[in-house]
DNA sequence: CGGAAGCTTGATGTGGGTCAATCCGTGTGG
DNA sequence: CCACACGGATTGACCCACATCAAGCTTCCG
């Protein structure tokens, strides 16, 4: 059986929720009553705004969890769209691929975030979702979710807000890719990760990146060597301290001014 | 009074819908029964999937149209979010601005497309929407729309699909910005405009761009000089013929192979 | 313990940015 | 109606940020 520590082993300890018992990969794909209520990610996850009654209805459609091993895909581009997924533990990248094989990483996703919304419009996914570490997700069957949205106004609102949030996130990435220098891109990437770690109760100054330099490059629109050089530069300038994937942000303000 | 010809004056004539009578800027901001039913953009617009009953309910919440003159904004970043907008005639760009003043155009939008979905998540817009020519939009008050979504399953589905479509559109732009050469970006831009013109019943091979080279550059992540050079190159190579903003695509297949 | 994957760093090349001159089309005012 | 001014487009010369290529190093994992 696994618990969150497996995924958080080399990340600074969470300041909030201690490792609560998790549902594990018990016999069948784990249907457990009151999953959301007991989930340590609840405050960061989709049903955050639901009242007790809606939450329990939401809970009842989240029929299973699924384990995805590091490097495996949760779904692939062109897979038929059945469900969206809430990350329970671990992390993912989403990737769109060009015909010539070049990859654009469209996002790195942490626990509590939702994956798969790209599939709604065509009933097929348009990206791959790959686990960056052994991870688990809650499976939210879309048809049921959509039916429930029709009944719970709050859930409908939450759903629309989540989608809109994704639109806004992607616009700001377009700005990063379209207007910023390599140095600025890496700096904003670090600040972004930092704030998301903080929001999850981890240290905003010290964390482990789960992706390779190449994956960062494919996200930030640059080559892995450039990512590496920028890390070296920030280290020389005393903004961060890096040791492979371990990052310590030394001067967060200066990083913001880059 | 205006009609669609005002906006389409120097665009190749539509092969489908002829200029139907439009609601104009009559006395008060034009509340007209059955707007959608008679709108020539209906087939390209949001309510495309609705049945008669839902359509009439939808119609009844579309309380007004609004005229936006070329260069004026429909909304600005940080404006409080009240409505989304369906473009009835004309075209817009949406822009996110960096603190240092650099602009990223996040999209060019034609008749039938929806603007303003970025505002749902924070109740404030995160981008500017600027008319590229004198244009008119249908105002769809969001609170009413959302209430109606709770009653019409079809409308709810349509709304979620529209948002998901926007997410997918933006991902593919991220790929363009992150992985493609200047030449490829301009080529895909032209192909994209071409297919959208075609979908609206205009010639896919010959059209007028409504934006400046600089605006294209701010969309494609390059400088206006580079945009211009790419146009010249395509012309030398016999792929397109350009005369200022007028574009004729000569070899669409070759453009796709760039 | 060995090999592969990932990371860093240096040397060199180049796509596109920058700067600047000129051209063109359009709207304006005499 | 023409001249002119101005915003936009084109083109050239030069430069620089980042890509590419290459070598060596570190870390991880079987």
Automatic annotation (TrEMBL), chains A, B:
Q: Which SUPFAM superfamilies match?
A: cAMP-binding domain-like (SSF51206), Winged helix' DNA-binding domain (SSF46785)
Keywords assigned by UniProt, alphabetized? DNA-binding, Transcription, Transcription regulation
Per the database record, which ranges form the HTH crp-type domain? 180-253
Q: Name one GO cellular component term.
A: cytosol
Q: Which domain of life is it from?
A: Bacteria
Extract the SMART domains matched here: cNMP, HTH_CRP
InterPro entries assigned to the protein according to its UniProt record, in alphabetical order:
cNMP-bd_dom, cNMP-bd_dom_sf, Env_Response_Regulators, HTH_CRP, RmlC-like_jellyroll, WH-like_DNA-bd_sf, WH_DNA-bd_sf
| GO MF term set | DNA binding; DNA-binding transcription factor activity
Cyclic nucleotide-binding domain: which residues? 46-116
List the NCBIfam families hit by this protein, alphabetically.
PRK11161.1
- Name of protein: Crp/Fnr family transcriptional regulator
What is the protein's species of origin?
Answer: Trinickia soli
Q: What is the lineage of its organism?
A: Bacteria, Pseudomonadati, Pseudomonadota, Betaproteobacteria, Burkholderiales
């Amino acid at each position: 059986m696994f618990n969150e520590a497996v995924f958080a082993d080399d990340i600074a300890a969470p300041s909030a929720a201690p490792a609560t018992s998790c549902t594990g990969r018990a016999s069948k794909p784990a249907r457990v009553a009151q999953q959301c209520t007991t989930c340590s990610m609840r405050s960061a996850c989709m049903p955050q705004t639901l009242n007790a009654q809606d939450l329990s209805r939401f809970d009842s459609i989240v029929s299973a969890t699924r384990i995805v091993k590091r490097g495996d895909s949760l779904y692939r581009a062109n897979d038929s769209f059945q469900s969206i997924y809430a990350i329970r533990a671990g992390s993912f990248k989403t990737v769109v691929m060009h015909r010539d094989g070049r990859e654009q990483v469209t996002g790195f996703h942490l626990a509590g975030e939702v994956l798969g919304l790209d599939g709604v419009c065509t009933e097929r996914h348009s990206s791959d979702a790959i686990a960056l570490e052994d991870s688990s997700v809650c499976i939210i069957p879309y048809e049921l979710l959509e039916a429930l949205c029709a009944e719970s106004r709050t859930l409908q609102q939450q759903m629309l807000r989540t989608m809109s949030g994704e639109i806004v996130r992607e616009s700001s990435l377009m700005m990063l890719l379209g207007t910023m220098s390599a140095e600025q891109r890496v700096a904003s990437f670090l600040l972004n990760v930092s704030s998301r770690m903080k929001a999850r109760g981890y240290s905003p100054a010290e964390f482990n990146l789960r992706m390779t330099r190449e994956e960062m490059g494919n996200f930030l629109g640059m080559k892995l060597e450039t990512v590496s050089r920028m890390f070296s530069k920030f280290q020389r300038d005393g903004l961060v301290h890096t040791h492979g994937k371990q990052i310590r942000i030394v001067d967060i303000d200066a990083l913001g001014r880059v």
